[in-house]
Specification:
alpha/beta, Leucine-rich repeat, LRR (right-handed beta-alpha superhelix), 15-stranded mixed β-sheet, 4-stranded parallel β-sheet, binds 2-acetamido-2-deoxy-beta-D-glucopyranose
Length: 420
């Protein structure tokens, strides 16, 4: 047995060794960077006031060298920034093209130089985020047709999104959130059939969601909170059967939440808030048993909490506050072992809080004025807690300042005070 493992280790060692030799060879190959790409990248970096760490790549002025062509280092590796990756297999392994670019959180304050849109072999600029890039995206962005991962989020880009984004049909990830764009979503985005992740929260985008977007059936993650998206929430989202995360908080959408949403059984995170007219039924969530986060606050929702809520075993946050939900507060909610935050305030729920609750449940906001926060209570007191003990609770006394929930609760309280 021991010998067998030894032998196995030997084989692995040999394998690792031969791989290293291969990498070594790759690094000494004679392939050189496409000269026009080299000019473009050098110009972009010079305009941005950054340069390669020449101990890592751009050794002796050759961009595609060192870690840039080393298959054991990925563009994601945080030790390399700014960074590029190259593919040197072109022209019988004599030409390298730049395939990935990272300029992540380097405080670049500048427009995007036109030269960037000449790097047509790029598949990955997942990491252009967290700078202060200004100006608009030109139609030339549509020339980067090999692009798969594009992230320009957290910058100060403005203007309308060019319809040529629809030419980037290989895109798997598109992220342009936290920018200062204007105008609507181009209907051409409906051509991005491979798209799995779309991040556009706080992007400045407004107007209705174009019907063409219906074809994006591979979407798994959609963040679109804090935008000015208007109109009704499209029915067709109920056809995005792979959807796991949907964030639609703080838009100008009209209700209701379409009944087609009841088919979205892969959802683990659903956040919709602030829907104007149109009463939605809570019935849509009945089969979403994989949810870990469910936030449906202030949506004019009616109906009662589904009786099977006790089957939502992975639920950690449940916020149904500021709706028109009726019926009894179900005891099974308080048995959910993963649940840590529960907000049911400002509804038409009846009944009393149960005598017992799961030990994870530390933040509770129930009927208007009935605020219970057990995070400061003794675990013993908590496991057998009395609703009345918590209802005389003063915001400035009891809250532990444990992160987000503190602010969240405080905010909810303020709203309560305003309404009453
Ligand atoms: C690289 O170029 C040198 C000189 O031009 C040549 O001797 C060598 O064989 C080349 N190596 C490869 C891997 O093509
Ligand atoms: C690469 O090195 C050359 C020669 O030192 C330099 O002129 C060029 O600006 C460098 N490019 C980058 C992107 O750092
Ligand atoms: C590719 O390069 C190899 C050796 O470097 C050479 O033998 C071969 O003829 C080349 N092929 C073409 C199509 O140029
Ligand atoms: C993009 O492609 C168009 C059409 O081929 C061309 O006219 C334009 O110069 C290209 N843009 C850049 C920045 O290379
Ligand atoms: C790019 O998109 C525009 C507008 O959608 C379209 O007219 C054009 O044909 C597309 N170009 C390519 C090369 O696909
Ligand atoms: C965003 O763009 C608007 C014009 O569309 C401009 O007035 C505003 O100053 C910009 N905001 C930032 C933070 O750049
Ligand atoms: C959902 O997809 C089905 C099958 O592709 C299609 O018939 C139906 O019209 C779609 N529903 C919506 C609302 O787009
Ligand atoms: C859910 O999907 C099925 C199968 O695609 C479809 O027949 C049904 O109408 C959908 N339900 C709703 C409420 O859209
Ligand atoms: C929602 O309200 C707006 C005005 O507030 C109205 O124009 C629109 O018709 C309403 N929509 C529905 C579905 O009731
Ligand atoms: C709950 O989470 C666990 C662990 O992530 C997972 O294996 C399980 O499938 C989830 N349950 C549901 C109903 O999604
Ligand atoms: C609230 O729900 C009740 C039924 O429980 C319904 O009669 C009433 O119209 C709803 N109110 C609003 C504003 O939707
Ligand atoms: C909650 O769990 C306790 C202990 O497992 C059990 O006795 C009780 O019936 C449960 N309550 C509900 C409403 O599921």
């Amino acid at each position: 047995m021991g010998r067998c493992i030894l032998k196995f280790a030997h084989v692995i060692a040999l394998c690792v060794f031969s791989c290293l030799v291969k990498v070594g060879r790759a690094q000494t190959s004679n392939a050189t960077t496409d000269p026009s790409e080299a000019r473009s990248l050098n110009s972009i970096f010079s305009k941005w006031g950054i340069s390669a760490d020449q101990t890592q790549w751009n050794k002796s002025g050759e961009l595609c060298s060192g870690r840039a062509i080393d298959s054991s280092t990925t563009i994601e590796d945080t030790a390399y920034n700014p960074f590029i990756k190259c593919d040197c297999s072109y022209n019988n392994k004599t030409t390298c093209h730049i395939t990935a670019l990272k300029v992540y959180a380097l405080d670049v304050i500048s427009e995007i130089p036109q030269e960037l849109w000449t790097l047509t072999y790029l598949t990955n600029f997942r990491k252009l985020g967290q700078n202060y890039l200004t100006g608009s995206l030109p139609p030339d962005i549509g020339n980067l047709t090999r692009m798969q991962y594009m992230s320009i989020g957290i910058n100060a880009l403005s203007g309308e999104l060019p319809k040529q984004l629809g030419n980037l049909t290989q895109l798997i990830v598109l992220s342009f959130g936290s920018n200062n764009f204007s105008g609507t979503l181009p209907s051409e985005l409906g051509k991005l059939l491979k798209l799995e992740q779309l991040y556009m929260d706080s992007s400045g985008i407004s107007g209705p969601i174009p019907p063409t977007i219906a074809s994006l059936k591979n979407l798994v993650t959609v963040w679109a909170s804090d935008t000015e998206l208007t109109g009704s929430i499209p029915d067709f989202i109920g056809n995005w059967s792979k959807l796991q995360t949907l964030r639609f908080q703080g838009n100008s959408f009209e209700g209701p939440i379409p009944s087609s949403f009841s088919n979205l059984t892969s959802l683990t995170e659903l956040r919709i808030s602030g829907l104007s007219n149109g009463s939605s039924s809570l019935e849509v969530i009945r089969n979403m048993k994989s949810l870990t986060i469910l936030e449906l606050r202030n949506n004019k929702m009616s109906g009662s909490i589904p009786p099977n809520i006790g089957e939502f075993r992975n639920l950690t946050q449940l916020d149904l506050s500021f709706n028109n939900i009726s019926g009894h507060i179900l005891g099974s909610i308080f048995n959910l072992s993963s649940l840590s935050s529960l907000f049911l305030g400002n509804n038409k729920l009846s009944g009393t809080l149960p005598q017992q609750k799961s030990s994870s449940l530390n933040n509770i906001l129930s009927r208007s004025g009935d605020i219970a926060n057990c995070s400061n209570f003794h675990p013993r007191a908590c496991s057998n807690f009395h609703p009345r003990a918590c209802s005389n609770f003063h915001p400035h006394e009891g809250f532990s300042s444990s992160g987000q929930n503190y602010f969240f609760l405080l905010f909810a309280l303020m709203i309560n005070d305003l309404l009453t």
